TrEMBL record:
<keyword id="KW-0997">Cell inner membrane</keyword>
<keyword id="KW-1133">Transmembrane helix</keyword>
<keyword id="KW-0813">Transport</keyword>
<keyword id="KW-0812">Transmembrane</keyword>
<keyword id="KW-1003">Cell membrane</keyword>
<dbReference type="InterPro" id="IPR003004">
    <property type="entry name" value="GspF/PilC"/>
</dbReference>
<feature type="transmembrane region" description="Helical">
    <location>
        <begin position="225"/>
        <end position="242"/>
    </location>
</feature>
<feature type="domain" description="Type II secretion system protein GspF">
    <location>
        <begin position="278"/>
        <end position="399"/>
    </location>
</feature>
<keyword id="KW-0472">Membrane</keyword>
<dbReference type="Pfam" id="PF00482">
    <property type="entry name" value="T2SSF"/>
</dbReference>
<comment type="similarity">
    <text>Belongs to the GSP F family.</text>
</comment>
<feature type="transmembrane region" description="Helical">
    <location>
        <begin position="380"/>
        <end position="400"/>
    </location>
</feature>
<protein>
    <submittedName>
        <fullName>Type II secretion system F family protein</fullName>
    </submittedName>
</protein>
<dbReference type="InterPro" id="IPR042094">
    <property type="entry name" value="T2SS_GspF_sf"/>
</dbReference>
<dbReference type="InterPro" id="IPR018076">
    <property type="entry name" value="T2SS_GspF_dom"/>
</dbReference>
<feature type="domain" description="Type II secretion system protein GspF">
    <location>
        <begin position="74"/>
        <end position="196"/>
    </location>
</feature>
<dbReference type="InterPro" id="IPR001992">
    <property type="entry name" value="T2SS_GspF/T4SS_PilC_CS"/>
</dbReference>
Length: 408
């Protein structure tokens, strides 16, 4: 139903006059010009011109709504609700102040649903691409308890921490990728443009070249003749790998397990998974979500198949009546410190606070590990490039050195 509603709506550009006589213009989503005019009149605007916005030739022509956008609007909603602003007014104010037309349209649509008497959680569920089940369930619990402002504050904190953690993981993965890409580019340039110049010189020597030099020349000739084959194989391999991860759950799970074993990177990803687990459980449990349901949400937010499966096993054991710390210990995947803090939280009845502390500790450890990785990889990049460039230079100058010895 949500997809059908979304497909029927278009974006309309409008020009009008406010009740104070001020000229206004903007964009609004709707199913027809008549309905858009009716929406504007409800907002106290007299429309003078409304037209369907032309679609771009390539793509939608609008900015996409990112997870960062959702985190920002969640924090804005939390701040306004805590300040005593009504929900409808808060949504309208954020929509008016948004610089992203897509976010503005999304908020306008949600605002119309709320004005029509639907619960906010129900309106959000129509956009699962931007608001997942965890988000909507937390909002629903806030509506039921009458503490929507405090729930939004918790959800905003959760989204901000999740985005910060995601950014750190991307930063950690960027450096190894950068080393590989730079090494490939520099080596390719040398093989395609520099080595052939030396080959022309060697052809006039009339002497037998060293095996190392012959090997480099053979690689250079292959690159010149079949560079497109190497590029095509790389692109196809990347595409097939991405498709296999998307479509084959068994293959994707094996990749997730392998990634956790990579030196340094694996350690960072393990800490990040523990931080996500603790932060998700802390947020949902504090919002009044039952522990078993909270574990379901934590499994979905873990970001790795190994932790997802382990958390689902923990959920099964907790459902059977076992303490969560005992179930976590049986999973053989969580550090002892985390298990002990969870045990203290269960005994003292402050599990959400203890999990929040665990999340903070591990988020900081991820931050420190990423900074350490950056410092470690800077000399590594220089070393890798030095070996590659130095090896090629030695291969090219080796025949010249030998010729000098013969002449001497």
């Amino acid at each position: 139903m949500a997809k059908q509603l979304k497909s029927q709506q278009d974006t309309f550009q409008w020009v009008g006059v406010s009740s104070r006589g001020k000229k206004l213009e903007g964009e609004l989503s709707g199913t027809s010009i008549a309905l858009v005019k009716a929406q504007l009149r409800k907002q106290g605007i007299t429309p003078s011109k409304v037209k369907r916005k032309p679609k771009a030739l390539f793509g939608s022509g609008q900015k996409k709504i990112t997870a960062k956008d959702i985190a920002i609007l969640t924090r804005q909603l939390a701040t306004m609700l805590l300040a005593g602003v009504s929900l409808v007014q808060a949504i309208d104010m954020i929509a008016d102040g948004s610089e992203n037309p897509s976010v503005k349209n999304l908020l306008n649509n949600i605002g119309e649903e709320v004005k029509a008497g639907h619960p906010l959680s129900s309106a959000l569920r129509k956009y699962p691409k931007y608001f997942d089940d965890l988000y909507c369930d937390l909002v629903a619990s806030g509506e039921q308890s009458g503490a929507l402002d405090r729930i939004f504050d918790r959800v905003a904190l959760y989204k901000e921490k999740a985005e910060a953690l995601k950014s750190k993981i991307k930063k950690a993965l960027f450096y190894p990728t950068a080393v590989i890409v730079v090494a490939i580019i520099v080596t390719s340039i040398l093989l395609v443009f520099v080595v052939p110049q030396f080959k022309d010189i060697f052809d006039g020597f009339g002497a037998e070249l060293p095996a190392f030099t012959l090997m480099v020349i053979a690689i250079s000739e292959f690159m010149q003749a079949y560079w497109w084959v190497a590029l095509l194989v790389t692109v196809i391999s990347g595409y097939l790998f991405a498709q296999a991860r998307m479509r084959n759950k068994k293959f994707s799970d094996k990749v997730d397990a392998y990634i956790l074993k990579i030196p340094v990177i694996g350690m960072i990803l393990n800490k990040a998974a523990v931080a996500r687990y603790a932060r998700t459980l802390s947020t949902t449990f504090a919002a009044g979500v039952p522990l078993v349901d909270a574990l379901d949400s934590a499994a979905g937010a873990s970001g790795n198949a190994v932790y997802r499966d382990a958390i689902l096993e923990i959920k099964a054991e907790v459902s059977s009546g076992n303490p969560m710390n005992w179930a976590m210990r049986n999973s053989n995947i969580f550090p002892d410190m985390v298990i002990q803090m969870v045990a203290i939280g269960e005994e003292s009845g402050s599990l959400d606070d203890m999990l929040a502390k665990v999340a903070t500790i591990y988020e900081q450890e991820v931050d420190d590990a990423v900074d350490g990785l950056s410092s470690l990889l800077e000399p590594l990049i220089m070393s890798v490039l030095g070996v590659l460039v130095g090896g090629l230079i030695i291969a090219m100058y080796l025949p010249i050195f030998q010729l000098g010895n013969v002449v001497g």
